[in-house]
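Fold it.
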Amino acid sequence: MVFICFFRTFVADFQCVMTQMTFVGRWIKVLLTVLVVLMPLGCMQAQRPLHVVMLGDSNTFIGGDSCNQARGWNKWFCDAVQPTTCRSYARSGATWTNTPQTVRNTEENIEVLGDNNVIYNQVCRLQEAVAAGEQAQPTLIIIMAGTNDAWFAAKRPLAYTQKGIEAFVTGDTFTSRPASEVLTLAESVRYSCELLRQSFPDARLVLITPMQATKVTVGAIRRTGDIIEQCALQLGAEVIRLDREGCVKRYEELKRRRYTVDGVHTNEAGARMIGEFVARYILL
């Protein structure tokens, strides 16, 4: 097991180097990726059973509730990690940020921006599913969101009025407030994550910042990622900066659609790159 973990670490680092190299280097990178996927997942054995839950927006939603659709990164993540169970509660159009009209609503599925199409309500759906015995207690919760907060910032006018650390000045009664009073991006991240921690204290929590997109400036995506990362540090959660480390680069997608179908949503190649990238992080 120690050897497998060491080998995975070596491969992940070597792949990063090979990405910048020649045609031959890229083929070596492909062969190493195949080796990683085919190797027994020895590093994960101590963590079995692994029950994974995904929350997020459209790029997670397109992978399907069962995480089996090829255009969703979560499909490729599951293929690589082989968890005991993996379920997505993501919704297209979702934001982290709540609005003054946000209420608990676990039935709505409008697939566009809306007052109740928020991560908070995905948390509520997860809580209900576990309580009803329809969902195993999650051991890993991954949340990938923030694109719509940046893209539709005009619809969330208070979203960026607060830095991440500023959302943590209030005390332990924070989650007793209604969602309609939690109106900044930073507070919304804290709110949903603390609700998850209360319900699932033993689950590993990983936040993924939004990837770059042609519809949103790199600056707006980075600002969103910075707030999410600041909140993760305060929460003691893990964070993956997909805007910095992911395969989707705005300037490249503006010239030619390489990893997306429309500059925002992944094609199969982009989904696979992201899913396997996240899997390497989780496995290592």
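Confidence is low (pLDDT under 50) at residues 1-12, 16-21, 36-46.
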